[in-house]
Amino acid sequence: MARRRQQRSGWSRPRTIKRLVGLAALALVAFLYQQPLRTYLATRDAVAARSTEVRSLAAQKRLLERRLVLETSDAALVREARRRLGYVRPGERLFIVKGIDRWRRAQHKR
Predict the structure, then answer these.
(1) What pLDDT, on the 0 to 100 scale, is given for residue 78?
(2) Where are the domains of the chain?
(3) Interacting residues of 86 by C-beta distance below 8 A, sequence separation 6+
(4) Measured between alpha carbons, how far is 78 from 48 in angstroms, rounded to an integer?
(5) Distance between CA 73 and CA 17 in Å, rounded?
(6) Cβ proximity of 64 and 58 under 8 Å
(7) What confidence tens digit (pLDDT) does each residue in 30-55 have?
(8) For residues 110 and 105, what is the distance between their CA atoms, to the nearest angstrom?
C-alpha cells in the first residue's frame, strides 16, 4: 500500500504543476487582453454616442432644409418684406398699433 501511495502522489505532483502552469498562462492571457478590451469597450460606447448625435443632426438638417425651401418661396419673401419693411400693397391701408408690449404684459399678469 505504501508503494501505491507513492505512485499516486508522484502522479498528482506533475498534475498540480501542470494545472498551476495552465492557470498562470490563462491569467497572463487575461492580463494581456485587459487593456485592448477596455479600449474596445470605450470605443464602442463612443461610436454609439456619435451615432446618436449623427442621427439627431441629420434630422435637424432635414428640418432646416424644409424651412429653407418654405422660406425662399415668393409668398414667404413678400410676407417677410411686409413684416420687416412695412411694405404695403397699393390700395391697402396701413395701421400702426402702439402699446402691444404693455397690453401683453397686462394680459400675462391676469
Answers:
(1) 84
(2) 2-109
(3) 94
(4) 45
(5) 84
(6) no
(7) 998 999 999 999 999 999 999 999 99
(8) 9
CB burial of residue 67 (10 Å; 0-12, 13-18, 19+) = exposed
Q: Which residue has the cell 446618436?
A: 52
Give the tens place of pLDDT for each residue, 57-99.
999 999 999 999 888 888 888 888 888 887 888 888 888 889 9
Residue 18 sits at φ, ψ, to 5 deg, of: -65, -40
Instruction: Indicate the range of 1-5, 15-19, 42-46, 105-109 predicted with least confidence.
Output: 1-5
Half-sphere exposure of 48 (CA within 13 A, CB side): 6
Distance, in Å, from the CA atom of 88 to the CA atom of 95, rounded to the nearest integer, reads 10
Q: How many whole angstroms separate alpha carbon 102 and alpha carbon 110?
A: 13
pTM beyond 0.70: the answer is no
